[in-house]
Amino acid sequence: MTEQTIYLLKALFLGIIEGITEFIPVSSTAHLLILGSWIDFSSGDAKVFEVVIQFGSILAVVWIFRARLIQLIMGTLRGDRTEMMFTRNLLIAFLPAAVIGALTIQYVKALFHHQIVFVFTLILGGLLMLWVERKPQYAKNTSEANQGETATSQKATAFALEEITWKQALVVGFAQCVAMVPGTSRSGATIIGGMLAGIQRKTATEFSFFLAMPTMLAATVYDLYRNGASLSADQGTAIIVGFVAAFFSALFLVKAVLRFVSSRTYRPFAWYRIALGAVLFVWLMT
Predict the structure, then answer these.
(1) Is the Cβ–Cβ distance between 17 and 32 less than 8 Å?
(2) d(Cα 250, Cα 151) in Å, to the nearest integer?
(3) Which terminus, N or C, of the chain has the lesser number of Cβ atoms within 10 Å?
(4) CA angle 128, 132, 138 (to 5 degrees)
(5) pTM: predicted TM-score of the whole model, two decimal places
(6) Radius of gyration (Cα) for the chain, nearest Å?
(7) Which residues of the chain have pLDDT under 50?
């Protein structure tokens, strides 16, 4: 195989990893950068590849929830109070990361080159998840699972999401700002932030999915605007390959994640984060 073919196969592999890890609280960025380093995948100093292919995963959510999104858009345009409140909450949760991210993106990207940062964020994030899951309201399975609701029920999704208050949405928004630190996990930070604000686990997960849409779209457009001209032809092709792979792998994972959180806690992911952080620390030290 040629060097270019091997390079694109590496991009394909990382795209699959992105789709698998984007919607579980284990940090897709950490996996992309760590595994990319281990397989000697060069994405350039700007790390555009890692940012842009995440939007491929987000498009999978757009496709899965397309009917709900159309309902949200049309309801907001018609002035439906419920849909307008949901849209308001998404905007409130989106704005903190949009403003702070635009101001600090260069400093945040500098952290991508220091893998020791991932050790601390992975382990601390795992410990925080364990602490939150020990709270009485999350210690048992969610009531949705006991009532036999399915994760794909659009009616159940709409009913749960419309109960979120603007204050809870704001907490989730600031939690998303914390997720700009590599290894934190955007989905993990927003889900745990929502749970700390009093939102049930499944609803917090669904809100995190919807919030990812404007957030990752903005990040993708901004990053391509800032760094697109400096990309080589090989890097541009790798982004396309990784983007498509992320879309299709995420397409099969999203519903599984919702089914999982309907009846189980995030403890397995917390322990996984701690174990991965420990392995990474040993690898860096040796």
Answers:
(1) yes
(2) 16
(3) C
(4) 155
(5) 0.82
(6) 19
(7) 141-159
